[in-house]
Amino acid sequence: MRFGLIISAAAVVAISTAPAAAQLRPPASAASAQLAPEVRDAAMVVDAFHEALQSGDKAAALASLASDALVYESGRVERDKAEYASHHLSADAAFAKATKRSVTRRSGHAAGNMAWIASEAKTSGTYRDRAINSLSTETMVLRRTGDAWQIVHIHWSSADVK
Questions:
Q1: What is the pLDDT of residues 86-140, one digit of tens each?
Q2: Nearest-5° angle of CA 23, CA 77, CA 134?
Q3: Stated pTM of the model
Q4: pLDDT tens, 127-137?
């Protein structure tokens, strides 16, 4: 993803003013620990979101998302948290529970009340009787309201390892 596209996404979401939900604070992942201090709290929200999906805690996963969160996945779009909750959340949680995801690289930046976290990961396991061995990229844009970061945009992409 080009840097300009990330900035454009951040500019689009920066104009919305949805209230923040409870801040989730899991232990920092090894990949998040390598980030600059000003972006680590945002990365911890990304980690909390993934941990909630993996444990099947859909309420905690949704608490990480702003009400106006925009989710791009597999060429489709869900335009807010409610739409994501009613469409892909359950499948994403089932997939996360059935597979193992390892972040291989992470970068990020925070400026003011906006941050982006870009992650590369490897996922393996079995889901719906299908062997999974894929590489994925993920960009999350977060907005801070008060002391809490929330995810306002997710863009996921993956490809099978050949």
A1: 999 999 999 999 999 999 999 999 999 999 999 999 999 999 999 999 999 999 9
A2: 80
A3: 0.81
A4: 999 999 999 99
More reliable by pLDDT, 135 or 33: 135
Residue type, 114: M
Question: What is the torsional sign of CA 111, 116, 118, 119?
Answer: positive
According to DSSP, residue 161 is labeled -
For residues 62 and 49, is the Cβ–Cβ distance under 8 A?
A: no
The SS3 assignment for 49 reads helix
Q: How many CB atoms lie within 10 A of CB 123?
A: 18
Per-residue burial over 56-78, b if 16 or more Cβ lie within 10 Å, else e, is: eeeebbbbbbbebbbbebeeeeb
